[in-house]
Amino acid sequence: MDDCIYCKIANKTLTSYILYEDNDIICVLDILPPSKGSFLVFPKLHIEDYTSLNDEINQKMFTISKYISIVLKNKLKFDGLNILLSSGETGQKYRHIVIQVIPRFKDDNIKIYFNRFREDPSFLEELKKYITTELIRMSQQYLNSEKKEEREEIKKDIDYKLLNQWFEKRI
Ligand SMILES: [Zn+2]
């Protein structure tokens, strides 16, 4: 995307303070940080939909966020962290998937505010049932589908085998 700031950083049209990069992801210091030491981690490709992000890239983004945080904590002695992942339409200017890691300091006065509401218990129950049933169905799907043609229709972004291992004890 020509006008996306994250793409510009990834393709080096914009200079940045790069902490780590490989073929898939890049991590840079935030030049307009909400707090000292804030940094950004994002895929190099312009991907907007978090639900279609490859598992390996997802894991790498969170693991590198943790490793950089370990080093940063030694230097800045922060007291806590917020990790905010944004993708798609969130009211932000760019839709590119990005993780913002925000070190928090006691009395830093940063307010992350949500307008909370009391959810209907019957909707919570319905949603819980739907999600758990779907996860179990998905976890069985790979192992149950014997025919190759059927397997090809299965989403490649999901590791069904892993999902199945996680849910094995619950089935
Ligand atoms: Zn982009």
Which short descriptors sum up this protein?
171 residues; HIT family, subunit A; 2 domains; five-stranded antiparallel beta sheet; 5 helices; globular
Bound molecules: zinc ion
Mean pLDDT: 90
CATH superfamily of the largest domain: HIT-like
User: Would you list the SSEs in sequence order as H and E?
Assistant: HEEEHEEHHH
Strand pairing plus helix content: what structural class? alpha+beta
* Main sheet strand line-up: 1-2-3-5-4
CATH class of the largest domain: Alpha Beta
Q: Could you give the distance between the termini?
A: 44 Å
- Tell me the CATH architecture of the largest domain: 2-Layer Sandwich
User: Rough shape?
Assistant: globular
The percentage of residues in β strands lies in 15-25%
The unreliable regions are: none
Rg, rounded, reads: 20 Å
Task: Please give the count of helices.
Answer: 5
Biggest sheet overview? 5 strands, antiparallel
Number of domains: 2
Would you report the number of β strands?
5
CATH topology grouping of the largest domain: HIT family, subunit A
Question: In words, what does this structure look like?
Answer:
With 171 residues, this protein is an alpha+beta fold. It has 2 domains: 5-104, 2-Layer Sandwich (HIT family, subunit A), CATH 3.30.428.10; 121-170, no CATH class. It is built from 5 helices and 5 strands; from the N terminus they run αβββαββααα. The radius of gyration is 20 Å and the shape is globular. The structure holds zinc ion. One of its GO terms (biological process) is sulfur compound metabolic process. This is HIT family hydrolase. Residues 5-111 form the HIT domain.
